[in-house]
Amino acid sequence: MSEKFIVPKELEDKNNLIGGVWSNASSGKIFEVRSPVSGEILATVPKCDSTDVDKAVEAARRTRETFKLVPVAKRVALLRRIHEIILERKEIIAKVLTMEQGKPYLREALPEVEETAENIRLSAEDISRLESPVFPIQDPNKHGISFREGIGVMAAITPWNYPAVMPSEYIGPALAVGNPVVLKPASTTPLSAVLITHCVQDALDELGFPKGIFNLITGPGASVGSYLVAHPGVDVIGFTGESVTAAAICNKAGLKRTLMECGGNGPQIVCNDANLKEAASAAAYGCFFNSGQVCVATERILVHESIHDEFLNLIMEEVKNWKPGDPMKGETSMGPLNNEPTALKIEAHLKDALRKGARILCGGERESGWPTNLYFPPTVIDGVTRDMLLNTDETFGPVAPIIIFENDEEAVEIANETGYGLQMAVFTSSIKRCFYYMERLRTGNLVINDTTCWWETTNPFGGGGGTKSGHGRLGGHWVLEDLTYLKSIAIDTSKVL
Fold first, then answer.
1. Digit-coded pLDDT (tens) for 54-75
2. Which end of the chain, N or C, is less packed with Cβ atoms under 10 Å?
């Protein structure tokens, strides 16, 4: 393995930020952050409870009325400064991200931190151009105008698979519209969030903003996260994670505005007129990037029966480009899985498939000889049927399940039957087929002739209506609209000077 990781001084003590002050948990309790890469303890962070949540929310609420009145130009300056500071510190943030999450440093972690900074910058650009309508009123003496106002204190709860970029998808838009933030990162990967929070608070201090606009608390989701979303001082909730957790949050949230970006079971559909080499390359990327731990991963590959054998040969060739290794080394294409529950779920799905008749063509078992038992190889499994967990559930690992379909109607039926609808992909050379699938697939996002893992920050991103993949939209002006409400004003100009 690479040389021993040196913990940055920012992570040595007091890793929560409440009211502009770095602090420990009120109880004094801590928990360890252990690396899936090396097995070593990277740092400890506060194990917060309801007392700390109360303090963080109260600190945010104290700034609510003043922050929303800060001119847009000053909020834009804040976001641009955060963007600059993140880029100045990107190497150390990316190294911490790799060690706590497991993804390759050069191929994935460093680009993630760069995208994190870019998300913040784009929020500045989007708020600069956010417009609201002037509307007609029947009374000739009255004129109607409107503007968007931040909803208030935002609770942002973010996952472990993208511990830097996911927080930025809430931080940037929330600060742009004037919503104070309480961030609760995933317990297995809180250190990236701590370093990002240092960047945010340093920019706030540098530009003279009030203390408490941004707050960070760490601790178990079942207690801290659950208490946070139900807190009466929270006005809007942003969550990225599992659908079951999202449903529980919505039940607790009541009438609060919620933005839920949940799981996916994204199929890549390969039609009989597709470019098979490109489809195989895209499928491998979608299955194995970040070790398959992506909400838009290619969880299922639906292949037309007439091109099954040729496609299978091509994807087996692609597997050679993906191999677990030391994620700090430049040549490594896959790091370890992040945590044991994810590994156990993958194994359970594969066991279910084998019991029902599927065949593993490569991979399928954890690799030995590494510092932890979380290194899982790329796995291709053929003969997957619709009753298998690999089809019905989100596996979230480096597995490429091959499912055969006979015609377009059956492909749509298989794609839609799981109840997920986040991002899907179709490979075809027919424009007629493009529209056929566009009109029938129940998904918030559809990619034609590219991987399910395709992504751009300015794109509206979220689940299809009525699916387990959530509601609301991340990206561009759409997320700004979700984090604000439209205030309409009617002015009787006959009664004013």
1. 999 999 999 999 999 999 999 9
2. C
Q: What is the CATH code of the structural domain delimited by 9-262+472-486? A: 3.40.605.10
- The alpha carbon of 197 is separated from its chain's Cα centroid by a whole number of angstroms, namely 17
Res 2: pLDDT: 65
Domain layout of the chain by residue ranges: 9-262+472-486, 267-457
Q: Which of 48, 271, 287, 295 is catalytic?
A: 295
Which member of 261, 299, 318, 394 is catalytic?
A: 261
Q: Which pLDDT belongs to residue 186?
A: 98
pTM: 0.97
Which residues pair with residue 135 across a beta bridge? 144
Asked if residue 4 has pLDDT above 90, the reply is: no
List Cβ neighbours of 147 (8 Å cut-off, separation of 6 or more): 132, 486, 487, 489
Residue 405 contacts by C-beta under 8 Å, 6 or more apart in sequence? 269, 302, 303, 304, 305, 411, 414
The answer to whether 295 is a known catalytic residue is: yes
Please confirm, yes or no, whether 261 is among the known catalytic residues: yes
- Output the CATH code of domain 267-457: 3.40.309.10
pLDDT over threshold 70, residue 309: yes
Is-contact 225 248, C-beta < 8 A?
Answer: no
Phi-psi region of 475 (alpha: psi -120 to 50; beta: other; left: phi over 0): left
